[in-house]
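Bit of a strange request maybe. I'm writing a small parser for structure token strings and I need a real example to test against, not something I typed by hand. Could someone generate the tokens for this chain?
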Amino acid sequence: MKNNGTSSLTVKKQLRMLPGHLAVGLWCLFTVGMLAWIVAASLSTSPEIMRGEALKFATGLHPENYVKAWTANNISVFFMNSLLYASCTMVGSLAISAPAAYVLGRYMFTGNKLVRNGFITAMSLPQIMIILPLFSLATRANLTGSKFVLIIIYIGMQIPYTTTFLLSFFASLSTVYEEAAAIDGCPPMKTFWKIMLPLAQPGIVTVGIFNFMNIWNEYFLSLIFASSEKNMSVGPGLKSVLTAMQYTGDWGGLFAAVVIVFLPTLVLFLCLSKTIISGITAGGVKG
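Reply from user aminoacidic:
Good idea to test on real output. This should exercise your parser:
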């Protein structure tokens, strides 16, 4: 009787979750279908795409679309720029935010709560409110139109979010590690770099991936501060390619460019999905 009761509860629970499972399944099916069509279009000719026959491959596969997108449409320039911006921002924001989050999460001092609230307030500010002051400062410093100013702005934009995200990870770590290190004569900074930072690796990897994807997909700041195509990231770059398509009609090259731009974030997520999930959930568990 006990087993039958347990089975009945399990069935009822599954039935209650069925609408949610169906919704997620339909969303996944729609997403996979759209991605499949984009990949098929990137290997088709423009007439096939316009006729809605991208999935038929009547004239065979056309991988030369990727070659044209990478060279003729400047996707290689946009791709490398975004890779530079995203990588530098990921490393720079972690190098600044990880020590800050450790101090704020492990030590109580006057102004601790004020600093935390400051980071949260900074996260809530819309980008549009600070674009004009930043652009004015960059103009006065003769930094507009350079990659350096975008990297600095991107790092500054990600620091509040990165610090707030890592706070829970460092706060959840047991104090036993620090006490053992102190007994062995290890100074606080060495304790952080050698012991505490590796323990927070799931959170660091997760927020690093999020920062990478945020900057990779960023559009507005790059559009404002990159005054020429040689400094543009993939967001404004794809917009310029789309504008050019109105005159050249190379829709296969456009979809090939979309696949090239989308590929890095997809590979990152597929390879590190377990780390991302564990990183998101680990911060809520107290050590």
